[in-house]
């Protein structure tokens, strides 16, 4: 019988994979979307993030979708969430479920919000594209600053599963001959791979190519090209001929091939 | 039941994995080694490669070990093999199974051969380190020029299995501030990943760090540091939640986890 190596998600408990399968993230986000649309939810923009007041029901949906960060407060039926700039743009522009207002309470339309985000946050275009791209594939995307990367991605809710990918978003240059400033040297890449590996994540590099694309309207991000590379360490010993045999070390990482 | 993605070797036929398991490459190479030692085999150095005359028995062992390239000739019991510079050095210095002679028939000792190879072939140090490193882990290593890389690596004999890795050998610089000249740009990396992927190989980048190491003696290569990175494309769709369900597209790539 042939043995092959398996890599996959690290679920946090027994049966959690089934719970995830029975509750697809796409449906949870759909519920959030329709609930927010019905209630005409507003968020106040401060800097490049926004603040949202949520009912208990909405708070539950936001938490289950893993969108926003709940800010502790004492009131029982009022909940506050801070949305990152990507989440703010995603809820307003991609899901059309949020109205972002400025500090005076004036609503910002998609274009105004787009311009504010572009102005206030460096690399917003690339980061937002990466966020939308991953959310569109039903990945849960959270900030990665804890690991020195842009995002971490989860197969489902972080309560069920560990994050699988540490994501670095790189730009292919904006036509001015500008180069990615990070991961320029292979030693940087090795460093980042080791760091990700030490927390059991794979390094995923996103290359966002927005050369020659007019960035006036937020819809332009659909035309940005995304190229994704996974970079991992290779352990030649894991592949040696000894692993064809039935020793325990090898089998612990293998399953029979069908 | 949880489904996980499997990657592994592509055997060329049914039962070939078993044939490989029953005939470990390490034992085949050991047989070659002792046979060559007994017969005091010589090879003639021409440029940076060498030529070896082999009996039918030795030719069989060389072919089974996948060392050297047999040169067609008409005589039935005389066989000629061309050994690459890495193979020549490996057989003489690492396996101590070969005596390399110059065109006048004078034997070259390990140090003389080392100096000739270093002089005649750019990047010999890195390429040889990569070759020895892989052979030491029982990988079959063949030239990769066909795929625009330095080597390809097979789990066993190429008659049994397709090569799994396309290998690019990069130097960490020799202390003179010299940089790797290949894969300097991420676009080069993407290109190489795509090319490797199109021939069902994974791109494996070897970083050979020989900074601060005296390269006078061939034994120095033991102190070169090797860092290996696997770089592959990521297909987010393969990881989507639909794959938790029992649809055929997903299952074709999955096996049940134990």
Describe the fold and architecture.
Two copies of one chain form a homodimer. Chain A has two domains: 24-121, MutS, DNA mismatch repair protein, domain I; 122-234, Trna Endonuclease, Chain: A, domain 1 (3-Layer(aba) Sandwich), CATH 3.40.1350.10. In chain A, strands 4-5-3-2-6 form a five-stranded mixed beta sheet. In chain A, strands 7-8-9-10-11 form a five-stranded mixed beta sheet, with helices on both faces. Chain A has helices spanning 16-22, 25-39, 56-65, 85-94, 110-120, 124-136, 186-198, 248-251; strands at residues 3-7, 42-46, 49-54, 69-71, 79-83, 99-101, 140-143, 151-154, 165-171, 202-209, 225-233, 254-256. Chain A is of the alpha+beta class and 258 residues long. Chains A, B: Its EC number is 4.6.1.16. Chains A, B: This is tRNA-intron lyase.
Please supply descriptive tags for the structure shown above.
homodimer, 258 residues, alpha+beta, MutS, DNA mismatch repair protein, domain I, Trna Endonuclease, Chain: A, domain 1, 5-stranded mixed sheet, globular, disordered C terminus
Provide a quick synopsis of the model.
The structure is a homodimer of 258-residue chains. Chain A is 32% helix and 24% strand.
Question: Which two chains form the greatest contact, residue counts included?
Answer: A-B, 55 and 54 residues
Name of the level-1 CATH class of the largest domain in chain A: Alpha Beta
Biggest β-sheet of chain A, characterized?
5 strands, mixed
Helical stretch tally of chain A? 8
CATH topology of the largest domain in chain A: Trna Endonuclease, Chain: A, domain 1
Low-confidence stretches of chain A: 1-6, 174-179, 243-258
Quaternary structure annotation: homodimer
Give me the CATH architecture of the largest domain in chain A, please. 3-Layer(aba) Sandwich
Mean pLDDT of chain A equals: 85
* Side-by-side strand order of the widest sheet of chain A: 4-5-3-2-6
């Amino acid at each position: 019988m042939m043995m092959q190596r398996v890599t996959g998600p690290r679920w946090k408990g027994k049966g959690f994979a089934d719970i995830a399968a029975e509750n697809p993230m796409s449906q949870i986000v759909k519920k959030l979307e329709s609930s927010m649309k019905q209630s005409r939810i507003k968020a106040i923009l401060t800097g490049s993030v926004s603040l949202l007041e949520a009912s208990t029901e909405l708070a539950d949906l936001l938490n289950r979708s893993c969108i926003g960060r709940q800010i502790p407060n004492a009131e029982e039926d009022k909940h506050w969430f801070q949305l990152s700039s990507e989440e703010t743009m995603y809820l307003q522009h991609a899901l059309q479920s949020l109205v972002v207002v400025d500090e005076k309470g004036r609503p910002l339309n998609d274009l105004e919000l787009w311009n504010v985000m572009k102005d206030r946050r460096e690399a917003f275009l690339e980061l937002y594209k990466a966020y939308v791209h991953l959310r569109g594939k039903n990945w849960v995307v959270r900030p990665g600053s804890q690991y020195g990367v842009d995002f971490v991605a989860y197969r489902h809710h972080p309560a069920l599963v560990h994050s699988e990918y540490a994501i670095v978003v790189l730009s292919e240059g904006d036509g001015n001959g500008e180069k990615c400033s990070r991961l320029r040297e292979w030693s940087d890449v090795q460093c980042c791979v080791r760091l990700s590996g030490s927390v059991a994540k794979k390094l995923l590099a996103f290359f966002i190519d927005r050369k020659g694309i007019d960035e006036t309207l937020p819809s332009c991000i659909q035309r940005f090209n995304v190229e994704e590379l996974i970079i991992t360490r290779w352990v030649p010993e894991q592949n040696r001929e000894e692993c064809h045999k039935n020793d325990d070390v090898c089998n612990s990482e293998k399953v029979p091939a069908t």
